[in-house]
Fold each of these.
Amino acid sequence: MRKEWLGMILAGGQGARLKLLTKKIAKPAVGFGGRYRIIDFPLSNCQNSGMDTVGVLTQYKPFALHSYIGTGTAWDLDRTYGGVYTLPPYADEKGGEWYKGTADAIYQNIEFLDIQDPEYVLILSGDHIYKMDYSEMLAAHKEKNADCTIAVFEVPWAEASRFGIMATDETGAIVEFAEKPKEPKSNLASMGVYIFSYAKLREYLIADAPLDTDHDFGKNILPNMLADAQRMFAFRFQGYWKDVGTVDSLWEANMDLLEDIPAFDLYDPKWRIFSVSPVRPPHYVGVTGEVHRSMVGEGCRIYGKVDHSILFSDVVIEEGAVVKDSVLYAGTIVRKGAYVEKAIVAENTELGEFCIIGRDAAEGPFGDNGGVVLIGEDTKIPAGTRIRKDATVGKDNV
Amino acid sequence: MKNVMAILNLNENEENLYELTKHRPVSAIPFGGRYRLIDFALSNLVNSGIINVGILMPEKFGPLIDHIRSGKEWDLDRQQDGLFILPAADGNAKRRGQLSKDLENFHANINYLRNCRHEYIVISPAGTVCNINYKKAFMYHLEKDAEITVIYKNVGNDYPLEGALTMAVDERGRVTDMAYNARETHNDCLAMEMYIMKRTVLIEIIDNCIARGQNNLAMDGILRNLDTYRVYGYEHEGYIGRVDSVYSYYKHNMDILNPEVRNDLYFSNGLIYTKTRSEAPAKYSSSAKVINSVIANGCHIEGTVENSVLFRGVHVARGAVVRNSILMQKVRVEENAYIDRVIFDKNVQITSGRSMKGETTMPIVIEKNYII
């Protein structure tokens, strides 16, 4: 039976600017919001949009992602008809190759797509935090009888040169596409979310494959289609969208959740973000505990003071410890009297008694952490250690 | 444990649980901020390596089926073994009075029992929370060359035991007596109504009892047969919370505010699994003031919460005060409301400025969906 549509999530990127956070896992597996991983957002969007088949293309350090996705149960994607498919690079009779670009990754899975036989293919990135009903975008794609529909959102003019920018006419048709233009003609930025009519996509992927190009949607496939005057339309997205590609932006996006009325609502029962639940009891706040403006996950035990922070599951804050403006991943232990400010602390790290993290001035101007202290996973910070703002500390350089 | 199967004998007495069991059986009562009582029984079995579990269904089993569904959360959705729903004997799903006619329910499923391939069977109720490893009890059963092992707990003298089945064990470990409401003569030894025996022994007991018009597993099947079979007692050493009255329900929920009880109950022999929903983490506002409380995912706290257990999705508005209370899923406590020693069932709402106060020995229970 022919499928109407399916999703292909590009989840192979390392996300090197997240530094220690992606040392062992790919960027889409990085945690967000006290219980989620980034990939939960596109996967939940697919599920909530009524899609029954999703391919997840993995490459860089895929083990955490593969075991996290499993058979797709958490997103109701464990289906008899369809379901979730993890698609790492593979070998055939001529040998095997890495995914050399976004378009190449899809090209190498043409056989998978042919077997699924969809009419439309949704291509998206596994790197972004947003809630979007792709079915509305599909409806627009069909209504315009488009070959390709690109989701766009308005960005401030000053930032437009950081994005792929679309110039459109009054019907929404894309007349010009420029990847990171120096002088942008529009402020409609591509979100990296595309719907293609599969026959057309297949044609362009096959044409691009033997050429010496970047095999990239933004640099090759889309400009080629535009040059051939294919029917390409922009679909405007309104709402919260964030690329959490750096330590700084990851921290900021987490902090966004702590507003009294956050721009991004995780509590909407009509658009639930699904994720794998840890098997843990509800969290406990002790007699000496104090929690304000924070989100707290399951299994945490809080005996100290937590302000404006996000705690993943199983975090322990001992008596007299103070945590503010921070993101603590699962299993972090903050010992007695420790002080933690504006930090991201990765899994299973222990901050020793009376540590002072993120209070002392940085050595120079802030680097690309933007002032945020980053502590890598499985690190044991000895008692009394002082770590300056903006520092990056892992278990190999404590 | 490949050779051991289990039956959950859900025929608990709900007489003293009033509103809490109006719409659900005892085994489906919410507990500890995220669980239902049956989660403990099911998790203990699978954590002990028992993966064939039949459930003798009680009355009002809707919420129970809704909760366990395929058994996936307990890894009991299997091709071989897994979960089996066993209907009660006609008209016998509801327990009437102190003695249950549970043997009739076993008898209604006698063909199921005959057809299973396992040599041994564990029988457990699901109205008690505890974290027990049946492997140890089973080893004891084999070591003693017992024909029936009854698991018990010496609960101490301040534990609520009204209407409970107690038992006496001699120095060799043999069970010498079982009786209801006999805590003094039995030194506070609560029979947990968990049994280990060969499947053939269970079938023999069922056949013999039913043929003679006897229908209670504990009294007719075990007590009358203390001289026929070698019946041993195995003592469970960890915490147990037997939920058989509003007071004991309240007490055992409050017990989990104690870290030792939490460690014992949630981690000592394995994790406790439950149906999961993707609910965002709990959110605290700047005006939140929470101490000594257990808070589940999806809660939104703007007011004061002390010594309480909050299930998922509870909202405590600004200025509201919650003390010594148990608030189930989606309870709403509006601005400046004050509650103390209450149990609010699912979806109860207390409107702005209202107050309500119960007593420790008699907490006020408000039934599901009420607006105060």
Note: The interface with chain B takes residues 33-35, 44, 73-74, 260, 266-267, 272-275, 277, 279-298, 301, 310-311 of chain A (CB under 8 Å).
Amino acid sequence: MSNPFCFKSELWVTKYTGRSAKNLSDFLEALRTIDQLSIFYHFYINIFNYHNLPTYYTNSFAFWFFKNGLVILAEKVSVIDPLDYYDLEDLRKILIKVVEQNLSLSMLQKELTPFYFITVEREIIDLGCEANNLEEFKEGIKKSSIHSIFYHFITARLNKKTIINDYSSWLHSIGEVKKAEKINRIHPFMMTLYDIKREIIKILGEE
Amino acid sequence: MRLEKYIPIVGEEIINEIVILAKRLKDIRVLHVNSTYKGGGVAEILRGLVPLMNELDVKTDWKVFEGDERFFNFTKKLHNMLHLPLEETITSEEFVYYLKVVYENLTKIDFSNYDVVIVHDPQPIGLVVNKERGQKWIWRCHIDTSTPTPTAWDFVRKFLGSYDAAIFHLPEFVYEKMDLPVYIIQPSIDPLHPKNVEIPDEEVKDTLIKFGVDPEIPIILQVSRFDRLKDPFGALEAFKMVRKNFKCQMVFVGGYAPDDPEGETVYKELLNLTAEEKDVFVLNLPPDSHREVNAFQRGATVVIQKSIREGFGLVVSEAMWKEKPVVGANVGGIRRQIVHGITGFLVESAEGAALRIKQLLSSDSLRKDMGYHAKERVKHRYLITRHLRDYLLIIHKILSAS
């Protein structure tokens, strides 16, 4: 087969941007200018680092609002699906828009517990493993770490500027359209990467 | 290989990723410098990490900065001044003496063969005056410097300008005037350390009995050195509220250094206060009582960490690794380790601690669920394998940046 699937993985090391916000005014100001990967980090950390946050909010912005008693903002920001935006600038814009639409001027200066803007340095590593057919593909996924699942299922979309994940894209290329579409419909924010891995393996095993 | 022993714990795929990452650092030489081979969290972490880095062919050495009593009295003061805004100042004599000791160490440690030098904490920070062209120096700060005494910050700033990056446990520990790139690496526990390794149930039971604790009655445990900042008195107060409704025992396991008179005072005060209490045990154990501490953590029903102020408080992760729900004060690193309502509870008062302990004692299933999530969290966030990967990645990133 001329189009093998190459298994990769993604590792992160986190950096502090030096910016923190103690009220919504500072927070919005930082959102407008902060490094794109900081937006990326705070949207994806909960899924990347399984067990990073209470799972009832999907990202660290929403969790921060919740901790500060801003439950409506927490809910509104929680439903932003970052997978709808492969361009991080678009994700930044929608986040700012949602926050601005759901606050009043009186809330802007209210003192809150600090929010620390973190960013990441990403490293994509080649795992030295390839799949040339569906069986090898399934075996490769079984041996994949959750970081590898994260890369192929989540961030490869950002790198390749597409809303189709790597697995589905490759399955399409070998004519496994039904499996490709089923996998692309998995909603990562409602399950852990282990659940996602199990679900993908289950779909690949279906007749 | 020691690294292989972690496979049953974290999975082969995680170890493979570390091996692949380490190949990018082949032939790189790394030096860690701190101020002691024994005692303290830094030495414990280096004892675990350095051999693993060497196994991965990242040539790593660990050297200790030497100083006399006068020197360490000064650096202890510097440490306290970096930690909190104090009325003290640093004299020019102290500065001159600090530099003298730094230059003495420079004659003992050969830095020339290293690509990356990682300096732990403030004591050896001045060694950077010997930085060679092409080398990368990283300051690994293990303390909270968010509100330093200005003169102490001015002191470290004289040296920080020559560093390439800093590493802190948490962003909230970073002083706002820090102008180096700051990586965030949280500390870790070693699941193969005698303090954390699996031990037979019989040993757990025998250890409890040996110290007079009844293994059949629920145990509330606090493990910490005897120190007012660990608030053993608050933990005792919480226990007294709990035992009105629940038959249980309170066990304090700790110790104090021979040169720590305040530790001895706190220990004796706690001992006197509980002398008549048959269900309270205050155990002052030697510093190498790792298996005993392990047994107490495994034998506990609920673990509490009622600190008033805390650096990171890895003892919380140690208990979580043993599938124990932890009721912890909402301070420092404790609030990062415990996910409130999922792996344990964060509390603001002795009353809050009592409430949560009662809640946990009332429900086997809640303890079981929280214990499961607690162990999973530590597995993904606070094990030495994650720490090793973080170091490898930072070294790779810093060298690539050049």
Note: The radius of gyration of chain A is 19 Å.
